[in-house]
Every structure is written in structure tokens, then in C-alpha cells.
Amino acid sequence: MTVVVFSLTVLISIIMISNNNLVFSQSLAKRLTLHGVRIQTPITGEKISIGINNLSISGRSVDNESSNCQVSVIVNDIKPYQKASASGLNGADDYSRWKFTLSPDYTELKNGTNKITAKLECKDDLDALMFNTIKITGIHVHGSEQDKLSANTIEHTSGAVNNESLEEQIIEKKEFNQTQQFVNHTISYDQNSALPQSNLTTSTIDSTLNARNTYIDKKMVLAPSIKYLVILIPNEGHESTNQPKKQLPLINQPYVPQNTIIDKSTSIIWLNADVGHRHKISLNDSNSEKIFESGIFRYNTTSKPLRLNETGSYQYWESNVSKEVPDFVMSGVITVTSQDEGNATTASQNKEDIVGAYMVPAKLLDKYRSEFEDKGFTIDSTFTYKDLRGGQKGTGPEQTLIVWKTHNIPLKKVIGDLEELTPTLPYN
Prior knowledge:
Blueprint: H1 2-34, E1 37-41, E2 47-49, E3 55-61, E4 69-75, E5 82-83, E6 85-86, E7 97-102, E8 112-122, E9 131-139, H2 143-161, H3 164-173, H4 180-186, E10 187-189, H5 211-217, E11 219-221, E12 226-233, E13 259-263, E14 267-272, E15 282-284, E16 290-293, E17 306-308, E18 312-318, E19 330-337, H6 344-349, E20 353-361, H7 365-374, E21 378-386, E22 398-407, H8 411-421
Parallel strand pairs: 2-9, 11-13, 12-14, 12-20, 13-19
Antiparallel strand pairs: 1-3, 3-7, 4-5, 4-8, 6-7, 8-9, 10-17, 14-17, 15-16, 15-18, 18-19, 20-22, 21-22
């Protein structure tokens, strides 16, 4: 009898531990859905001797055996990004855990503030923030002090990698806190004012507006001559692909284009064409800090034009959009670059173009092509695809993605024309 009671006690304990681990894993996975990649060691604010060679940097990501992701690291913005090594349990391609050794061949820590950024790149669709940045302090130490600091650093590193509670603290530490000072410096509403100069320049951007590429690659590259990009929130854009067919979205991305590369003098506008749904855009910087929020805008209205004055990569997103899939996060990426100074004058003089995407039932393409052209729009390209839901009443089984463009037409008229067209679609 005693043996039976003891066995039952052990069994119950095992079940309770397993359940606790499951709850923790689910909680951790949920947080990692928001934070796609995290640097675990070193930690923000840590003091590290600049005399240490081969500093170990490690972390976690949402990569798993069913996804196809890779982590890379950049230190003090010294390009290019350096590929990290996968150290997950599932082999050389498992970046759920990763590590990177900072060697003198790439760069060394400097005295004072050092910035370390990890970037997650996935070929699959993951609702995750793709960057995490920490700042550490490089200090001069000598002799026994350096040996002691090195030992402490090694001890801290090895302990943190195996300490799940510390991992949870790090993940929770930088939840989306708005930094108003950074907002004032980085973001401005478009008032036709002169933009501040940046030290970061790239070659002049070649425009890639092809509708087929926008659908397949979920990306659009804009030339510096584009003054405004109108990003479409398509009908059913709030739906996740992880649900029954009748609830699927109509297109493969919640924003069209979902990812865009623009010059820093181009402004962004979001058009809400998601019938019956209100939306609100939040935008994060490369440190995963929320630095902008649009406020709620209704169906068939637009956000105010937004211009990002600093080069870099920004993730915009909206959560709590799906009752069926509560963890679904609508997300997209804006990469801001700066053109060569030699072409700046010409580009500025010609910045009259407005570009955007639109979605219509394929069987009504000719009708809406005529509507667009009658209003002075140019249809740059179209791409017809089988919608993910398989067709709705009045729309048919195929949708057509339209990439449109206007030249020398005021923004107010362009937005007015779009708001006039949208309610005529059969989605309503």
C-alpha cells in the first residue's frame, strides 16, 4: 500500500512539473512571437573590458525545425552583418539558440558605449520583430582587474545561457515602451519641410513596382523620386492564415506591400480597405522600441502621411486583430535609405509621384482599370492570383493585385479618388 501511494505521489508530481513547463514554454513562445530574436549575453549596461578578445555573444530566436531562419550580428554599425552560428538542439540550421564570437578580424569593442544588434531573417512568414539591440560599456582595465573582469564575464555568460528565468526577464524587460524624445528626433509628419542631412548614404534606388514581385516577394522597392507610398490594408487583412479556410485572408500579406525600401524623403500613408474594421498602426525602431502610433482610422480612410527622417529598418504592426487567432500580429517592415548626394537635387525637383497597391476581383479588372485611368492614375502592372479563401459571393475565386502610380496630382485628390472607389467593390 505504501509503495502504491508513493508511486501515485511521484506520478502526480511529474504531471504537475510537466504542466508547469508547458505553461512556461507557451508563455515564452508567446513573448518570442513579439520578439523574434533576443540577445541574452551580454546584457544591456554590462561593463566589459575592451582588452577581451573573442567576446561571446549569444541569444535565442523563434526559429524551429519547421521554419527557415538565420541570425546575424552587427557591432557598432560596422557593416556587413556577420553570420551567427546556430546552436539549437536540431543541428546546424536551428537558430532557436545562436552564438557569435566577436573577433578582432571583424572589429573590437571601443572605450565607452558599444551597440550590438542581432537580426533575424526568415524565408517563412513569422509574426516577429526582426531586430534586437543592446548597449554595453567598454572599459579599460589592467592586470589582475582585467583577469577578474574576464572571469566574471565568462561566469555570467555561462550562467545566463542556462538560466531560463533570466531569459524571461530579458524578454520582458523591453516591452513596447514609447520613447517620446526619439519620436521627436526620428519621425515627423510631412509638412513639405527640408529634411535633415544624414551621414548614411546608398546608391540611388532603382524602383521595383512589379505587381507579380510584390505578391510573391511581399516587397516593393521605390525610387527616390516617389513622394508618397500608399500602403494598402486589404480586405480581410486582419485574418491569419492559421485558421479555417472560410476565415482566411484573400491575399498572402496583411499589408500590401508588406515590406518596402524607400528613400528617407518618401512619406508613408496607410489606406484602410478592410471592410468593417478599424485599424491602428504602431511602429518600432531597430531596438524594438515603439516610437510611433497612428491612432485609430476607420474603413475607407487613411492615416496621416508619415515620414521617417533616420535611415534604418522599422517594423510596423498591429495586434489583437483576430478573435479566432488571438496571437496573430499584422506586421510589415519599412527600410529607409538615403540616396547619393549627387542625385539629391534632381530627385527633389521631380518628387511628384505617388505610388500604391490595390486589390480587386479579377473578373472586374477591366472595370476598375478604366476607373483608375479616368481619374488620371497609371496602372503600372497587375498580377492575378487565386485568393486564399477560394472565392466569396460576388467576387469569384481570383483576385488581381494592381500597382498604380500618379504624377503631378495632389495627394488630397488621390486619396479622395481612392476613397470614392473602395466602397464600390463587391467586398462591402
